[in-house]
Specification:
With about 180 residues, this protein is an alpha+beta fold. It is about 30% helix and about 25% strand. The chain is globular and about 55 Å long. This is GNAT family N-acetyltransferase.
Length: about 180
Amino acid sequence: MMPPLTLLDTPAVKVPELETPDLLLRGPRVSDLPEFTALANDPAFYRFLGNKPQSEEDVWRRMLGQLGHWALLGYGAWAIEEKASGRYCGSVGFFDNQRDLTPSLKGTLEAGWTIAPRLHGRGYASQAIQAALAWIEPRFPQARLTCIIDPDNVASLNVARKFGFHEFARATYHNEPIVLLERPR
C-alpha cells in the first residue's frame, strides 16, 4: 500500500505578495482549506455568493482555479490573511471565468472580493481592493476592469463605487439577478 500523498503548503505557482496596514495578500495555501470551507458554510458569507453553502470539494476546486489563473494568465486571486491573527479571512483578485453571461465579461479583468463576516466593517475589503488594483493596473493598462455583484449586496456595491466601478448592465446569472459594473481607465 502506498503512503498518502503529502501536500505542500507553498504552491509551485508564484503569486506576488502584497501588504496593507492590516492584511497580507498571498497565494492560496493548502492550510487555508479548513478556514475557507468554514467560511463557505457560513450563511452570512455565502448569502450573496449563490446563497448556498459549498462543500470542501467545491472550495478546493475554487482554490485550484485561483492558482490556475496565475499559472495560465499571469493574474488571479490572492488569499487574504489578517496580520493580527494570522488567519485566512477571504480573497481578492481578478478572473476571466468564461461566464455564460450576456453581456459577456469574457476577456475582461473581472474583479472579485470576499471578506469573513467577522471582519466586516473594518475597511479590509477596501484595503485589499486598493492593493490589488495598484498591482494589476500597471501590468494590464489596456484591460477592461469589471465585476458582478448581487443587487442586494449594498455593502459590496458601495465598495465597488468607492473604487470607481459603475453599473453598466443588469442580467440574470444562474437564475439570479446580477449587477454588472465596470471601472473606467
